[in-house]
Amino acid sequence: MINKVVKNAEEALKGVENGMTFMLGGFGLCGIPENCISELVNLGVTDLTCISNNAGVDDFGLGLLLQKRQIKKMISSYVGENDEFERQMLSGELEVDLIPQGTLAERCRATGAGIPAFYTPAGYGTEVAEGKETREFNGKMYVLEHAFDAQFAFVKAWKGDTAGNLIFKGTARNFNPMMAMAGKTTVVEVEELVEAGELDPNQIHIPGIFVQRIFQGTAYEKRIEQRTVTPKS
Amino acid sequence: MALSKEQIAQRIAQELQDKWYVNLGIGIPTLVANYIPKGIDVEFQSENGLLGMGPFPIEGAEDADLINAGKQTVTILDGGSLFDSAMSFAMIRGQHVQLTVLGAMEVAQNGDIANWKIPGRMVKGMGGAMDLVASAENIIVAMMHTNKKGESKLLKECSLPLTGVGCVKKVVTNLAVLEIKNGSFHLLERAPGVSVEEIKAATEGTLIVEGEIPEMQF
To answer: What interface predicted TM-score (ipTM) does this complex get?
Structure first.
């Protein structure tokens, strides 16, 4: 087995530089690579382009990088939970490319799957399609969307083994699998790192071939954005 | 009396059909899950990667790794399943989801919808809405008939950036149930106690009224 294990976030993020493009997994705060984000804050790298469905909240997730003005451009589908983000965007300090969520997911998948572009109906006739090729198939209009180019993908998995095989939990899976496939260097942090052979091959969501570096994450906060409950009756 | 948000959801729930997979947007649409008619089976799809979404967890059982598209903690029912975002939108674009219910800031009489951006003021993003409206066979919009200033949200043409073109076929508001066809709003039902004249006054787009318009039944 090819061993992908690195000691910690510091080692995992070697080669990260100013001006790079990153993919970061997660939906809201669910399944975000908390350790990698903390390390990006520590490194103080700037002028980043971040591809991530959301932009965190003011004081957690990608919001931490926004606070320090480390991000030049965000590529996201929904950014409604972050006041600082909205302020930077409306004032023009932050470049923002908002794209439909399914298009975002498929562009990540295409990147890792060797598909340079694909047609999707999402956004046809809206400003999302402006300047893009469109084409009719079977009487319906579609927009041509392209794969990404990201130096690093930062991914959070539940369990992983030393060979880089990954298993996700609950809805923390979201964008993580496609981004794992898409990064030129894919860095994965896991809640539980085990020896190769300990995970059932039938249960693996992402094979280790897509992963370059994996490490045991620490101190997960796993913050809940909207705590909604049914009262005990 | 104009409907409450709960009543709008309750009226939309009457549109659910047996064996449908349904995606509910944030806000009023989420409430539809509380009013599933007796005797039918539906499954709720949450585009962040969950089918068979159940109610909010019992206090103390919240799981940060199990949320809906509104980032609320939820549960998963027996027979439910989990998947990634690419597969989730394969379900949506591939028309495996039979109904989408979502909110809107504006709807036009040709079926255009705007719900993601107010230039220079509010930009939250479209999330999954553009994929959903571009693909769903059935789209129901849940909305207030007018904005806070009393201006109609059912228009001849949308003034805000569009989410989708010519896709909305049904709108349920606090005042009425309307169908969109042939470039007009067609009044199907009125909220109890709300007159056709009130609905006409609150609708900027072309409103077709044919025959007696019944009140909604709950």
So the answer is: 0.96
